[in-house]
Amino acid sequence: MIKILITEFINQNSLDNLNNKFEVKYNEKLWENIDELNHIIVDYDGLIVRNKTQVNLNLLKKGSNLKFIGRLGVGLDNIDTKYCNLKNIHVQPASGMNADSVAEYVVSSSMSLIKKIPMFHNGTAKGEWPRTTIKSAEIKQKYLGIIGFGTIGKKVAEYALKNGLKVLAYDPYLPVLNDNEINTKFSNLTEIYEQSDIISLHLPLTEETKNLINKLSFSQMKKKPIIINTSRGSIVNEIDLINAYNKNLISGFALDVFETEPIKSELYKKINPEMNCILTPHISGVTTESNIRVSDFIVKKTIEYFN
Ligand code: NAD
How far is Cα 106 from Cα 160, in angstroms, rounded to an integer? Predict the structure, then answer.
């Protein structure tokens, strides 16, 4: 019988469906126990992970019977996809299944940060009444610059347009689309930096995108934009971002992803409650609804693959 190993959380109903077809071992904490994982992986034909399990060369070499890896989410930077290609191991992301959740996060954090909600909250909770000292604004007619215009980038544009934002997009790997058709103006990076009031990142972490947003990029941002990163932590240089905020080059930031997760002390020690910022523990794509969609999709793809 086909054997499937699941090392991170999955929706219970989807798990039940998989259990009806295959022999499944499920331990949502297994990603933490690298020794056990390395020891048992050889017994499995399929592996299902989120982003915590490091499916690196070492694990893959031990998993000599693996034929299929399901990724409960998108972003394949925790999987050695080159080696998988070489060994003909099929890697299946849940593309699009959490795009609505991420798009809602981007629009809601844009609104919160433009309205300085974290600062108003902090002042009010301390017994101050910062009604006139902190200046708030509307997102309507503001420019949102999207870097990476794939599945999530496009969904963010759709949500942003519905909320009255104007959208710019940068993606060097897309064929040129008709700006008018999608109400989005294709721009280069300099235009995005110069014209955006909000900049949101939706690209994969690769050698090319690591540290893409750095000291130099912040120095080119003319409108003191808000930065929103739901893609991968290392794409934005975190120390440069805090410095840019402290130098008033940007007016706020929402970070859902970090270079090291959980967040490293070097970073959180630089954050204080007075700042116009939102920090979340890699949850923008994880909602009740998206968990069901993502889990159902990967279970369906696993069954299809082995059938
Ligand atoms: P996708 O593959 O559909 O789109 C990524 C886009 O980025 C592609 O169109 C690609 O051409 C573009 N791109 C690649 N290199 C680029 C570069 N140097 N500059 C500009 N654009 C570039 O992926 P997606 O489903 O839209 O997801 C995007 C990323 O979001 C994922 O890679 C993942 O890291 C992240 N993500 C995070 C969460 C979360 O919970 N925080 C959830 C889902 C996805």
Answer: 9
Ligand 1, atom 30: nearest CA belongs to which residue? Answer: 231
| Intervals of the chain under pLDDT 50 | none
The domain that contains 225 carries what CATH number? Answer: 3.40.50.720
User: Total domain count for the chain?
Assistant: 2
For residue 20, how many other CB atoms are within 10 A of its CB?
A: 9
**Interval between CA 205 and ligand 1 midpoint (Å):** 8
Q: Which residue lies with its CA nearest to atom 14 of ligand 1?
A: 203
Same domain, yes or no, for 219 and 294? no
| Per-residue pLDDT tens over the stretch 88-102 | 999 999 999 999 999
- Mutation test residue for ligand 1: of 152, 155, 168, 188, the one with most atoms within 8 Å of CB: 152
Q: Which two tokens stand for residue 143?
A: 């420019």
pTM comes to 0.95
Domain interval for residue 184: 99-279
